[in-house]
Amino acid sequence: MSNFTGSYTLDPAHTVIGFVARHAMVTKVRGKFNDWDAKIEVADTPADSTIEVVIKTASVDTGNADRDAHVRGDDFFNSEEFPEMTFKATDFNIDENGDGTLTGDLTIRETTKSVTLDIETEGIAEDPFGNTRVGFEAKTSINRTEFGLNFNAPLNTGGVLVSEKITIEIEGSAIKNS
What we know:
mainly beta, Lipocalin, globular
């Protein structure tokens, strides 16, 4: 991990914190969050590293204003009462190439559950502006009902309107702080 040691800031212009849900059991709906803050400290010893992310739930963006308003409401995030969701890393199982798993506590609507993300580092390079960048992808799945996101509607054909399984996908570019 020594190649990656240091303090990093996620580049908002080149990072997407997104999710995928099944809709009506036949299609996928993708969304992302537009307002978040992440603090990343990579230590020589992975166990000494820290990652903390705060996401503003009202910043959810699925590309449809009516759906976004519904997701911000009490059926899902209840953004007025629970304006933030958080992730705090608790365990790093990352190899020298930056690949592996990252486990942490995800809190949504005051419910905290441990989740494990699969991490794949795409590379480390100096950009044209002299910044050291690390590109990575992270992915996991959660059951949204475990976090109190219980809304659903039955379909005449069987199944439900919105899947309980939500896939979280992060494509990131982290810039090393000088």
